[in-house]
Structure formats: structure tokens, C-alpha cells
């Protein structure tokens, strides 16, 4: 987990943000069919949360996943991004 402190931009007005982020990367590769083929999955999950000195909050998350079957065909592919600010 990484932690950050962000100061107001340029003119010095606005809140200061304290934030943290987490990055997770999971890969799974396994041999099948007598080691003649590979099944591959890759999942990435990145999350960041920031809290402003004025009580505001920002949440950002991206989740991506890929899967290839033993025939080399991509069977899953998605990338979802979510951002919420309060």
C-alpha cells in the first residue's frame, strides 16, 4: 500500500488531500494437455482513496481480467473502472 499527501495546486487555495492506493496483480499460468498448452488468467485490481482536509473524498478503482483457454482462445476480457467523489 502506498500513501500520498497532495497540496493545493498553483494558487494554494483548496483542500489538501491525503490518500492511499493498493495495486494487486494476480497471474495464473498452468500447463494442460500433457504440457502442450497453457491456460492463462490475469487479474489486476487497482484502488485509490483520497480524503480532503475539507471532508471531501474520492474513490477510484479499476478491475481488469483476461482468460485464455487451452486452445489459445480468449474467453474472458473485461475492464471496469469506477470513480466516486463526495
| Major sheet strand order | 1-2-3-4-5
Q: Mind summarizing the main beta sheet?
A: 5 strands, antiparallel
Alpha-carbon distance between the two ends: 23 Å
Q: Spell the H/E element sequence.
A: EEEEE
The rough form would be described as elongated
Q: Pairing-aware structural class of the strands and helices? A: mainly beta
* Radius of gyration of CA atoms, rounded to a whole number: 19 Å
Counted by DSSP, the helix tally is 0
Provide the residue-averaged pLDDT. Answer: 89
- Strand segment count: 5
Task: State the low-pLDDT regions, or none.
Answer: none
Estimate the strand proportion.
Answer: over 45%
Specify the helix fraction band.
Answer: under 10%
| Tally of domains | 1
Folded structure, characterized:
- With 86 residues, this protein is mainly beta.
- The chain has one domain.
- 0% of the residues lie in helices and 71% in strands.
- It is built from no helices and five strands.
- The chain has strands spanning 2-6, 17-32, 37-52, 57-68, 74-85.
- Strands 1-2-3-4-5 form a five-stranded antiparallel sheet, with no helix packed on it.
- Strand 3 and strand 4 (57-68) form a beta hairpin.
- The radius of gyration is 19 Å and the shape is elongated.
Amino acid at each position: 500500500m502506498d500513501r500520498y499527501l497532495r497540496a493545493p495546486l498553483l494558487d494554494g487555495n483548496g483542500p489538501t488531500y491525503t490518500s492511499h492506493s493498493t495495486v494487486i496483480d494476480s497471474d495464473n499460468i498452468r500447463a494442460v494437455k500433457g504440457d502442450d498448452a497453457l491456460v492463462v488468467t490475469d487479474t489486476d485490481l487497482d484502488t485509490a482513496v483520497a480524503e480532503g482536509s475539507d471532508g471531501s473524498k474520492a474513490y477510484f478503482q479499476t478491475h481488469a481480467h483476461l482468460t485464455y483457454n487451452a486452445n489459445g482462445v480468449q474467453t474472458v476480457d473485461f475492464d471496469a473502472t469506477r470513480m466516486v467523489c463526495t
